[in-house]
């Protein structure tokens, strides 16, 4: 079972940059998208029909602000996944932040995690989100479920996860508070499998600023992650990053389960 996740930085924009060709070649069983920035009805009709013929979809746009945030999960038709939008918390759900999907005892929590924003004006909002998401993971573990938590998490967990850590300690995505809150997910029983299997390996980035040729020089951040329940770790055949996909300022990340 192959999962892919990608912050597309606007779905209609990425469609103009070869997204459908990429999807045909990548051929995931489950695809999670973040920052879709549009309603389903705003997507080209031909694209909608093509996707609906191959996938069961949950399209979860923001209702709080037009052209903002939003997430989507697509699963191969007939694979048995069920999808439900939202965490049941209006402050998050109006921004289309997270979709919960189930397949037997496996729960996929896929979403666009809040950004602390310039001046850290949304840091309190993001900190509450982390507490609520960690609590949901804990609840599902207690119910006997295995969990995959994935998305643009908008935090680089450790210094090795960004090119210039010392320059960014006070910036959104690398504050001590955000890194402390990321550990709540680990304390809830999740594992950062890519880092666990690549300890000490630098340069594994998933986002690059569009300024100064940062992507070409690989001056980036690892803020898009798959976290999995400890019980799933032996089933992880592959945890990957795909920087060759260039339709967004983020690149896709992958997870393959046996």
Average pLDDT, rounded to a whole number, is: 97
Which structural category do the helix and sheet elements fall into? alpha+beta
CATH fold-level assignment: Deoxyribonuclease I, Chain A
| Number of continuous helical runs | 7
Q: Could you name the ranges where pLDDT drops below 50 across 5 or more consecutive residues?
A: none
Indicate the CATH architecture. 4-Layer Sandwich
The CATH superfamily name is Endonuclease/exonuclease/phosphatase
Tell me the domain tally. Answer: 1
Strand tally, please? 12
- Shape designation: globular
N→C terminal distance: 7 Å
Output the helix-strand order: EHHEHEEEHEEHEHEHEEE
Main beta sheet strand tally, sense and closure = 6 strands, mixed
Oligomeric composition of the shown chains: single chain
- Classify the beta-strand content into a percent band: 25-35%
- Provide the gyration radius in Å: 17 Å
Walkthrough of the structure:
The protein is an alpha+beta fold. The chain has one domain: 4-Layer Sandwich (Deoxyribonuclease I, Chain A). Helices cover 25% and strands 26% of the residues. It has 7 helices and 12 strands. The protein has helices spanning 11-15, 19-26, 45-54, 90-93, 123-142, 176-187, 193-197; strands at residues 2-7, 30-34, 55-60, 71-76, 82-85, 98-103, 106-112, 146-152, 190-192, 224-229, 236-241, 253-257. Strands 3-4-2-1-12-11 form a 6-stranded mixed beta sheet. The protein has a 6-stranded mixed beta sheet with strand order 5-6-7-8-10-9. α5 (123-142) links the parallel β7 and β8. The longest helix is centred in the middle third of the chain and has 20 residues, at 123-142. The termini are close together.
